[in-house]
Amino acid sequence: MKRSPAPRRRTPLPRPTKPIARSAPRRSKRRAAVETVESTEYADFVRSLPCRVAVALGHHGQCQGRVHAAHVGPRGLGQKSAHDELIPLCAWCHLHDSHDHATRNGALGFIASIPKAERQDWYDDQIGQVRDLFEASRGRL
Predict the structure, then answer these.
(1) Which residue from 21, 61, 63, 132 could staple onto 90, CB 3.0 to 4.6 Å apart?
(2) Where are the domains of the chain?
(3) Distance of CA 13 to CAs 8, 9, 10, 16, 105, Å?
């Protein structure tokens, strides 16, 4: 459908004499993530351990990829849990299994097969075991 051009105004619109004052956009003040020497030391220790899924299933040495220090503590959507709520997970378990992704054949991994209501309890148990290993390695127990 062809449209005709807009009709021209008989009198032009009045133009402001001064430019419109605009303020700079406000930026939120984000707090920087606080990483202490102890939290970095703890994360390095967690990465040195075997994958907790492999330990739970007794499949030592069958993990895929390097071990990640996975933040698995309770948190809000889009947030990372505290630096002391880490467990070691291999790359596959961390990136696929712990985030409810099914494998190519549709099977769920070990962590994803745990009901969501019980999964945080399993994570908390693993966090406690890893903390105990860390404390024992530092000679505090």
Answers:
(1) 63
(2) 60-137
(3) 11, 8, 9, 10, 66
Q: How far is CA 135 from CA 49, 53, 74, 121, in A?
A: 14, 21, 22, 21
Q: How far is CA 47 from the centre of its chain?
A: 16
Whole-number Å distance between alpha carbons of 85 and 81: 7
Residue-averaged pLDDT of the chain? 77
Q: Is residue 102 scored above 70 in pLDDT?
A: no
> Residue 45 burial by CB count (10 A; 0-12/13-18/19+): exposed, middle or buried?
middle
- Angstrom distance (rounded) from CA 104 to CA 77: 26
Residue located via tokens 């993990």: 63
Question: Residue 101 has which token pair?
Answer: 């992704």
Q: Is 21 helix (H, G, I), strand (E, B) or coil?
A: coil
Which helix (DSSP H) or strand (DSSP E) does residue 135 occupy? Answer: helix 116-137
